[in-house]
Amino acid sequence: MDSCRISDEGMVNLAGPHRLKCLELSDTEVGSSGLRHLSGLFNLESLNLSFTVVTDGGLRKLSGLSSLKSLDLDDHQITDAGLAALTS
């Protein structure tokens, strides 16, 4: 979904495909609040959030994604505290 017009409200439609392994959301209007809809994607291995408006608070919503191996956060204002929330 790279560069598409999906926003936080549209993320609810991604809550169902539990077998999803890779999700490309770069250059979209997705922000931190939309990431709550990804919490059930336990098989997700790769997530690209480059050029979105995700913050440290949004990263905390990804902490339960235990299969996540790759997270792309180019062009973000993410702090060390936000990254630490992913491992706790």
From TrEMBL:
GO terms for cellular component: SCF ubiquitin ligase complex. The lineage of its organism: Eukaryota, Viridiplantae, Streptophyta, Embryophyta, Tracheophyta. It comes from the Eukaryota. This is F-box LRR-repeat 14. GO terms for biological process: SCF-dependent proteasomal ubiquitin-dependent protein catabolic process. PANTHER family: LEUCINE-RICH REPEAT FAMILY PROTEIN, PARTNER OF PAIRED, ISOFORM B-RELATED. It comes from Olea europaea subsp. europaea.
